[in-house]
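Retro notes - structure team

What went well: the batch runner handled both jobs without manual restarts.
What didn't: labels got mixed up in the shared folder, which is why I'm recording both outputs here explicitly, each with its sequence directly above its tokens.

Job 1
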Amino acid sequence: MNENGSKDLRIQGIPLLPFAVMFVVVMGAMVTGYLGDDILSTVALLLALGGLLFEIGNHIPIFNKWVGGGSMLAMMVPSWMVYQGLIPEKYVDAVVNFYDGISFQTLFICFLMAGSLLVIERSVLIKSVTRYIPTILAGVVCAMICGLIGGMIMGYTPADIVCNYVLPIMRGGNGAGAVPMSQIYEEVTGNSKDAFYAKAIAILTFANVLCIIVAALLNGVGKQFPVLTGDKATLMRSKDVSMTGDDKVELPKVKLGDCGNAFLWVGSVFAAACIISKIAPKVAGASIHQYAWFVVLLVILNVTDAIPLYVRAGIKTVTDLFTKHWSGVVFAGIGIALTDFSEFVSVINIDTLVISLAVVLGAVLGTGICGWLLGLYPVDAAVTAGLCMANRGGGGDVVVLGAAERMELMSYAAVSSRIGGAIVLVIASVIFGILY
């Protein structure tokens, strides 16, 4: 803030002028080849390029609400730059090594999952199991059926429809969605995760736009037929089992040491998940990926209250660093290291529209009908358990719930994005093993 109380223009939290100077220095060093290919130089490059694009994308009208905003621009422009040869190969290799080689993406994904699941109030997780999780599963099944119908009409094989359309859409999101699913795909099938990721992120982005439109339509349906919805803050038709609001654990003030120790806590849980993934019995011939076990362990630790609150505060703070201040590193890194621009463009066609719409409508129908049978309001169940499964993760949840005028149901949206999404990762690891 300046003296008159107005906000200074900032790029990723940095005032515009110093950011501009640093941007020119870093990009000039890249163009001349004087920039190093070490981790510090790579992070600086991603922060400068991705940070600027992230802020620009978030301020473009319509684009920032309907097409992914800053995350999409920060991801696709660097990918296009690689495609056009505008980023020297030396630095492309450095980003690939940082993001995929030493696997910064694993660090980011694990903290994203831990930071989300460990702050959800445990009663929310417990209540969700009995009615909400079955509703999510019904949406996944119905989305798969409708997607198969739409895809086969367009001439696609069942394996192609399920693996390249239904699963990416129903997992939703990027860091905890398309990225881990592409890793599971490569591990299970032996095929390249990069090609799978490029298609998956394009398709789920397209589906996210459809989810926002359908959410607005469902809001209209609720107004026209009030019996199908509640007060926009209650999901359960029985008041005594309702759950409203974005219920989160009350965390203590974070200390610097808690943030440092968070890496060992999260790393230890992930190590346990890796061990379990290797020794646990296979399902239908396929191993369950460590990310899925990681989420299961986090849920158990949350419900049993096994992780101290000060540790959760440290984990949440580190997660906020990655998601709020390192957006450039995350999305520009994905664009350079994992996104093939030509593959991305190739899937934007009428076939994608038909199949994606079929999947989204299937999710709405499945969750609406099952939700009604289990005592939920069908419109609200369709929005939270259906559309919040098929959108772009946490950011998509905000936009979808905003379009449906049901922001007070964010807790259920969080369960869909995290718990429901983890279930889809488990399903994906099994289906990939069966179909490939």
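Job 2
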Amino acid sequence: MGNRKQLVEDAVHGIFLILGIITVGFVLLISVYLLIAGVPAIGKIGIVDFLFGTTWAPTGEVPSYGILPFILTSIYGTAGAILLGVPVGFFTSVYLAKMAPAKVKSVVENAVSLLAGIPSVVYGLVGMLVLVPLVRNAFNLPDGASLFAAIIVLAVMVLPSIIKVSLTALEAVPKDYEDASLALGATPIETYFKVSVPAAKSGIAAAVVLGVGRAIGEAMAVIMVSGNVANMPGLFESVRFLTTAVCSEMSYAVDGSLHQQALFSVALVLFLFVMLINAALNFFLKREKK
């Protein structure tokens, strides 16, 4: 009986090990493919001209492949979405975990789950038909498709990830921590923000990382509300993100051309950008734990 149980455990351990290796293998495969496809174009264009050039005109009389507007737009758009989405998601999760009545919590949790299941194209469609005209009329602009509209849409899209992960982390905090704080004379609000939140900070930080990943990687919704024009970023200007640059031009880029290779290089920059942010956040989190 003992040998049979050990065999089952070994088999399960082996299955999980294989699945983990497959996951790592896919990441390595994507990395190698992007390097092979993207590095040659950077070599032909020049890394300085590619990363710091301000003009993207691959079909112009004199082709230009500068992606600085895309990089800055992605940074500003992601930062704006996180600045708007994190406080709303954080306080919502604290309210749901610690203060909300059971019925209210159930309704809001279902709404958040529904929000997470809405396809990106629906967000983009609603943004294009409702948000863009509102921005145009509110700020008296010739066109409401802008970085500002993209930030609003991205802020809404990152909410489900932030709320659900933060809520799970807060609910996992042992009740003994809060009871001890209350017994020492702290108010419930002080207990929630000075005891429960610090105890759940690793989970809340993971929620922020997921939100950053969602904001950086979004393409379909952004392309519908941002205007998709390769301008230097301005809050009320039509802009183009790294993701939208790839998905909007790959369909008509000639196979094997420098244009197509440059788009793979844009994807490589985006991939490295995401990896760098994740590595930096994980580094700071691990250092805090130590």
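One thing worth noting from job 2: The CA atoms of residues 78 and 215 lie 5 Å apart.
We'll revisit the folder naming next retro.
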